[in-house]
Amino acid sequence: MELVNYITWAPNPEIFSLGPLSVRYYGLFFAMAFLLGYYLVDRMFRRDNAPEEWMEKLFIYVMVATVIGARLGHVFFYGWDYYSQNPGEILMVWRGGLASHGGAIGILVAIWLYSKLVTKRSMLWTMDKLVIAVALAAVFIRLGNLMNSEIIGSPTTVPWAFVFEKAHVHNPEIPRHPAQLYEAISYLITFIVLIFMYWKTNAAKRQGLIFGVFLIGIFATRILIEFVKENQEAFEETMTLNMGQILSIPFVILAGVLIYQSFKKPLIDTAITGKQKRKK
Asked: Where does the protein principally reside (predicted)?
C-alpha cells in the first residue's frame, strides 16, 4: 500500500528521564489539565463568592475520584476477566489502564458527596462549573493518548491518515484514522461552547444546562467516533456497539433530561450569600 501521502507517527512518549524517574507527555498533559482546570473553576467560584476552602476541597475530591473511578472503570468494564484472576494488579495504576467512563462516574459520586458534605448546595451548582474544566482536560488527555500511540483509529485511506508505527496492534504500518485527534478537536469545540455559555450568556442561571450540553458534546461525539476506532478489547469484536458506545448512551439520555429540565425551571441566582460567601 502506498504510504507517501500519509502521516508517519512514531514519537517517543517519554520527554526525558533522570535515573528511575521518567517524565512522559501523558503525565505532563494530565498535570496541565488539572492545573488549568483548577484556575478556570476557581475563577467561576470567585464569581459566585464561594469560599476559598470549597475550591481546595473540590480539587482533592475530583483528583482522587478521577483516578479511582477511571481505574475501576477499566477493571470492571474492559478487563474483568483478567483482573478477577489477578486482583493484586487492580491497584497497579502505573501499568496503565484507565477508562474515561469510569472517571466520569467517579466524579459524579465525588460531587454528590462534595455537595452533601461541603457546599450544602445542589450538585448542579458545582457540575455546571466543573464540566467546563473537564472538557478542556479531555482535550489534553486525548493528546496524551496521541503521543502514546494508543486508542488509535481503524484502517482508512483518507489523506490525513496516520501510520502509528509504535502502536501495539497487528500491522502497525497500515494507515488509520487519528481518532485521538478527532476526539481532542470535538472536546475543544465543546469547551469553547461551554466557556462562552458560562461567561457570555445566562446559561449558568439555568441550572443543569451547561452540564447537559457538556454531556452531549463529550458522549454523543464519543458514540460517533467509536465507529472509526479500533476496539480496545477482543470481546468487543462481536458487538454491534462497543463498550465505549454502550456506556455513553446513559450519559446522552441524562443530557436530554438535564437540558429539558433547565428550561422548565425558573432562572436562579448562583451567587453565594450570607455566612458561606467568600471573605474579602
From this structure: membrane
What is the DSSP track for 204-224?
Answer: GGSTTHHHHHHHIIIIIHHHH
Mean pLDDT in residue range 108-117: 95
CA distance 108 to 65: 9
Q: What is the 3-state secondary structure (H, E, C) of 79-112?
A: CHHHHCCCHHHCCCHHHCCCCHHHHHHHHHHHHH
Residue type, 27: G
The position carrying cell 512518549 is 13
- Residues 190-193: contacts with CB within 8 Å, 24+ apart? 190/135, 190/214, 190/217, 190/218, 190/221, 191/132, 191/135, 191/136, 191/139, 193/217
Place 29 in a pLDDT band, splitting at 50, 70 and 90.
very high
What is the CB neighbour count within 10 angstroms for residue 55?
Answer: 17
Residue 222 exposed, middle or buried by CB count within 10 Å (0-12, 13-18, 19+):
buried
Q: How far apart are CA 147 and CA 167, in angstroms?
A: 10
Assign 265 a pLDDT band (cuts: 50, 70, 90).
very high
- Say whether 95 counts as a known binding-site residue: no
Where is 23: in which H helix or E strand?
strand 21-24
CA separation for the pair 183, 154 (Å, rounded): 14
- Grid cell in block for residue 84: 478477577
